[in-house]
Structures are given as structure tokens and as C-alpha cells.
Amino acid sequence: MAWDQVERYLAEHGPAFVEQLKDLIRIPSVSAQPAHDKDTRRAAEFIRDDLRAMGLEAVLIETARHPIVFAEWTGAPGKPTLLVYGHYDVQPAEPLEPWLSPPFEPTERNGNLYARGATDDKGQMFTHLKAAEAWLKTTGGLPVNVKFMIEGEEEVGGASLENYMAESADRLACDYAVISDTSQFAPGMPAVTYGLKGLAYFELTVTGADRDLHSGTFGGAVANPLNALAQMLASLKGPDGRIQIAGFYDTVKPLEPWEREEFARLPFSERGFQDELKVPALFGEEGYTTLERKGARPTCDVHGLWGGYSGPGPKTVLPCVAGAKFSFRLVPDQEPAEIERLARAHIARVTPPGVRCELTTHHGAPAVLVNVDTPGMKAAARAVEHGFGARPVFIREGGSIPVVGLIKERLGVDTLLLGWGQNDDNLHGPNEKFSLADFHRGVKAAARLLLELSN
Ligand code: BES
Ligand code: ZN
């Protein structure tokens, strides 16, 4: 039977897949750093060539920044079409010092592959390529029609993919979409993610005088932008962990009773989580558990704060400018544009006299929440069970994947979020890793998904 042949192919070629993945990872496709533009392009070409080698029509779509790889196989008329999304760009590797092996020299330790992009998203994305290869090489076809859309600007919030999707909705038309760029719940506990948070990201600049001043001669007589900024940021969140912007919670969809039961059923130790992070206490919105806060409640965090003097020794400066980056993670049905309006009104209200404020908006993303009770989700759960040997749990995650909103808006399709990573994979950080066992299980689940979706 066809599936047996596919399984045999996967078993025989597993080691070769890992070597190919290593070759892809060795290309430092850091989309944020112009010095790596050539490498970023090389990664796109690598994927295009791999798709061609398995018999797909694959092209690079040129954009203002990094190309998009598009490929399709349409040899199953009457069968559904699956769109596979992934990204071949990676976050910068810096700081380099904490890496135990060089970030772009994939290194195996304890069954894990350590390198930048190992899990996010080269390793996870690659599972779908190898799954298609196994079908094509053993049966000469795929159980469903498949389109691949692999971009190179995910880690920089680039606009190229959004523009491409706006122009190419017909070419991208599909019945299902799948992304592997999330995590399992725990080792041995694979997950299907049915919720992601959205994001509204801001930068606030507070200015005072036209030059830095002596804090003795001028202090107390003019407002200090850094003091003002500190007050303003502190006003965003109360000691109860609630965001204090008027109207912020108006559209938040409450957790449903079945979700709270499911969250409570997951094996999770608040104490273990605290100990693992070595924090003196956990902190979050009152009335919710850690898993609920992480996955299903909106949050607010400051990401950077600058101004004045922070070099060695004291300097009695009254700075003329201060700045901060902060963001809100959003949940359904909060709209990033509406949150921006509310945030602007709040900042205007809490700006103390004597300073000027400028708020700029970085890219945002809507939250995602999909019905778990659909044929696609059921097929996905069966595929994951096949690949991982355990029935997946359904979870909501705190991260954001902006393309999921675009796929819904432009193509009218919910995305199957099948993540093969682990929570301690250090994505975006030093010593990023991906379990090789999870890689192989992911390839198998991805191959099985094609079969499950064809029925
Ligand atoms: N793979 C992550 C998203 C993710 C992380 C999902 C953890 C679930 C759990 C993705 O590559 C990412 O980092 N996204 C950014 C999006 C932002 C730049 C718009 C994020 O969540 O910060
Ligand atoms: Zn990422």
C-alpha cells in the first residue's frame, strides 16, 4: 500500500534529510542584516532547487526585499488543495558569546540539532518538503494538491508577502493551509494549536528641552522626559496585572468554560515553571492561571527603554529625550487598529505637562482562534497522532504568526498550526535547537497529513 512505501522511504532517507537540513541551516539567511542579503537569497534558491528536484514547478517571486519561493503540484484534480507556509529567514545570531557551537554550523548534541533556524523555522518547514518528496518519489504523485509559499521576511515583519498575497489570491487558492512554526505542549505531548495571540507594537519618544540640562540648576523647574516616560509606562498596567487603558478589554472574548477545563487538565506545574525560570514568584493578571495568561489573555510588555546616562559612575543629567518600545499581545476579538486608537488616547491622557510625545506604530497582527471541530482539524490530529505516537492536545499559544490572519482574510481559510518544536528550543536566542526525533516525527506527520486530507 502507498503509505507503507512512504513510511519505508522516510525510514531509509531520514539520515539524508538531516544532512540536507544541515546544508540549509549553514546558509546564514538573517533577513534583518543587509550584509546577509546574498545568503538570504541563497537559502531561497536552495529551497526552490529542492522543490524542483522532487518534480515540482518552483519559482522565486522577486520582491522589494527577499524573494518568496512558490511551488505547486496540481496533479490531483477533484482533491482538496493544501497551502504550506514556512519561512527560510532567521533571526540574528547575536550575541555570539553564549553559543556552545557556532550558530551556523549545525551541531548534534544529545539528539538535538543546535543552530540558528534549527526549529524556527528551517527545521520545521523542511518537514513538509521531505513529506512531499516521500510521496512523489514512491508513488509519483501526492494524495492532495499542494502549494508551497516559503517567505524570507517573517522575522522582520516585512510587507512583501502581504503585497504578494493581495495580488495573487487566485494563484494561492486552497482548501486548507498548514504551518509548522509553533511548539508541542511538552516532550511526548504533541499539540495542535488552535489559538495564537495578535500583536500591537509601539515606540514612544518623550522630549523636553532642546538640550540636556544640569539636574541641579534645572531640576524641579522643568519636566524630565525620563521621569515622564517612566510614569506613562507605569500607567499601562496595574499591580493586579490588568491593563489600564480605557476600553482595552471591551472586545476580549472570554475564555469558554470548556477551554478553562482543558487548560486545567493539561499537566502543568506552576511551581515547576517558576523554578525552571528561577523567578522569585510568577506574576500575571489576577483570576487566571499561568497557562490561561500565557495563551489566552492579553498582555503588555516593555521591550526597551533608553535615555539619559547609563555608563559607569554618576552623571547628574536631566536628559532632553527618552524613549521606549512596548507592545500588547492581543486575543480575539481585539483589533490592532482599535488598540492603537485606544493606546494613543491613553498616552495623550497621561502625558504630563512640560513634555511632548510621539507614538509610532510598528507592524501588528490580529489574534487567531479557530474552531477545533472541523474536518481539517480532525485530519490534522490524526496525522499528528500517526507521526508522534500520541494523541495531540489542543492548545492556545502566546506567540504571533501574522500570515495566519492574511490567509484567513485573503484566502478565506483557517490554518492548521502543527508545531514540532519544544518550549525550551531557544528560538530567537542563543543555542537554538530542534530535537532530531521530533524532526523525523514531524516529517512523518506531515506526510500523513497529505493522506488524511485526501479523504
Ligand atoms: N514562531 C514564532 C511564533 C511563535 C512563537 C508561535 C512561540 C508560538 C509560540 C514566530 O516566528 C515569531 O517569532 N513571531 C513573532 C511575530 C512578530 C514579529 C510579528 C512574535 O511572536 O513575536
Ligand atoms: Zn520566529
Kindly describe this structure:
The chain is an alpha+beta fold and about 450 residues long. The protein has two domains: about 1-195 and about 365-455, Zn peptidases (Aminopeptidase, 3-Layer(aba) Sandwich); about 200-250 and about 300-365, 2-Layer Sandwich (Alpha-Beta Plaits), CATH 3.30.70. It is about 35% helix and about 20% strand. The chain has twelve helices and 18 strands. The chain has helices at about 1-25, 35-55, 120-140, 160-165, 225-235, 255-265, 270-275, 290-295, 335-350, 375-390, 400-410, 435-455, and strands at about 55-60, 70-75, 80-85, 105-110, 110-115, 145-150, 175-180, 190-195, 200-205, 215, 300-305, 315-320, 320-330, 355-360, 370, 395, 415-420, 435. The strands form four sheets. Strands 1, 2, 3, 6, 7, 8, 15, 16 and 17 form a nine-stranded mixed sheet that branches. Strands 11-13-9-14 form a four-stranded antiparallel sheet. A hairpin with a 6-residue loop joins β1 (about 55-60) and β2. It is globular, with a radius of gyration of 24 Å. The mean pLDDT is about 95. It binds ligand BES and zinc ion (ZN). Ligand BES binds near residues 363, 399 and 400.
Poorly predicted residue ranges = none
Largest sheet: 9 strands, mixed
Specify the CATH architecture of the largest domain.
3-Layer(aba) Sandwich
Q: Please state the CA-atom Rg, rounded to the nearest Å.
A: 24 Å
Measured by DSSP, the beta-strand proportion falls in 15-25%
Q: What is the chain-wise order of helices and strands?
A: HHEEEEEHEHEEEEHHHHEEEHEEHEHEEH
* Overall geometric form: globular
Distance between the termini: 16 Å
Give the helix tally.
12
